[in-house]
Design goal:
6 strands; Rossmann fold; 10 helices; about 220 residues; 2 domains; alpha/beta; globular
């Protein structure tokens, strides 16, 4: 059995991908950008916002990146809780992990205060031993810094931890940190895309995630 479960936030614990894409779509419409921009942008969920700007608008000046990012944040921040509904079974899974005395943390590219707003609204802060957000690291996913910080602060060895995420950025972060990974197909990356990062498991939702964590490395839910 693992001793630590490190969860991504968007698309993993909360079903926020549709809402995030809607905010992106509103920005695309307001700036009269082609739909191809939205298609390129949506697959970057999980990457820090300013890095998204660099990738989506490589020919544009930094001032433009900041302008679009600021507008995105204005729209998103006004309805953060609404855009982050919990996935079914989340509280049940957290209860089970806590009962099994497994440490639980979050490693996200989202700004930490936004995550805290959602967790506090749903009375979920009590489950998490640590929350590492965008401003807590110098190197973002897929760099392993978030995992390294978590392992160090919670005094857990890499072999005893597992990362759970819905994107290749999460799974590559785990691999770069020498930690097992479970991919979930609840975000914007398909099973085919997730499989390229070679996680130990790929599953459809939190119920299967729980079974694997409790069974440890010998879980039978390999896809």
């Amino acid at each position: 059995m693992y001793k630590l479960a490190i969860f991504d936030f968007d698309g993993t614990l909360v079903d926020s991908a549709p809402g995030i894409v809607d905010v992106m779509r509103q920005c695309v419409d307001e700036y009269e950008l082609p739909n191809t921009v939205l298609e390129e942008w949506r697959v970057l969920i999980g990457v820090p916002l300013m890095r998204q700007m660099e990738i989506v608008f490589p020919e544009s000046p930094e001032e433009y990146w900041l302008e679009v990012a600021t507008r995105y944040r204005e729209i998103y921040d006004a309805k953060t809780i609404e855009l982050c509904p919990l996935f079914p079974g989340l509280t049940k899974m957290l209860d089970a992990l806590q009962e099994a005395e497994i440490k639980i943390s979050i490693a996200t590219s989202k700004r930490r205060p936004l995550v805290e707003v959602v967790l506090k609204h749903h009375d979920l802060m009590k489950y998490f031993d640590l929350l590492v957000g965008a401003q807590d690291v110098s190197n973002h996913k897929p760099h392993p810094e978030s995992v390294h910080i978590t392992l160090d602060r919670l005094n857990v060895l890499p072999v005893d931890a597992v990362v759970i995420g819905d994107s290749t950025y999460d799974l590559d972060m785990a691999r770069n940190a020498g930690v097992d990974a479970i991919g979930v197909t609840t975000g914007v990356h398909s099973e085919v895309i997730l499989s390229k990062s070679e996680p130990k498991h790929i599953v459809a939702g939190l119920e299967d995630v729980l079974k694997i964590i409790l069974n440890g490395r010998n879980g039978k839910l390999t896809h």
